[in-house]
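TASK: fixed-backbone design
INPUT:
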């Protein structure tokens, strides 16, 4: 049986929750954008971003579980982006993930947001040949 993961990302201004089965099957993947929340300010306001994450993360988790047909009892482990990002935003995702992991008695894995980008290639179903070179250019973070 493939393990079920509840994954949470609140590194910047989007709140994302996914339910994965095994390493390559996405059962649900939801993102709530805060673009409109920050548009009037000409950019992301960190305090507003973290407050919005706090407002929407629980309903987003509930909807992801509903769409995937998975219950909390079915989750085998949690994954959360814990670095790099806006401190307040990260705090919301990490705190919610740690709380759920503790309540469910499940392990939690911290994920480096930037280093995780190359691994999205594995979700395409096309095997990668190693060694390989990958460039990530995202906001204020670049990785080669």
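OUTPUT:
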């Amino acid at each position: 049986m493939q393990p079920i993961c509840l994954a949470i990302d609140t590194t910047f201004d989007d709140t994302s929750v996914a339910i994965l089965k095994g390493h390559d099957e996405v059962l649900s993947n939801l993102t709530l954008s805060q673009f409109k929340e920050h548009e009037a300010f000409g950019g992301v306001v960190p305090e507003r971003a973290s407050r919005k994450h706090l407002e929407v993360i629980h309903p987003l988790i509930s909807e992801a579980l509903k769409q995937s047909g998975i219950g909390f009892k079915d989750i085998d482990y949690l994954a959360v982006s814990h670095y790099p990002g806006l401190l307040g935003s990260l705090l919301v995702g990490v705190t919610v993930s740690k709380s759920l992991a503790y309540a469910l008695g499940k392990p939690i894995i911290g994920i480096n947001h930037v280093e995780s980008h190359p691994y999205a290639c594995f979700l395409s179903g096309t095997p990668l040949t190693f060694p390989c070179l990958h460039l990530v250019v995202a906001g204020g973070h670049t990785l080669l």
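COMMENT: Strands lie at 4-9, 15-21, 25-32, 77-83, 108-112, 136-138, 141-143.
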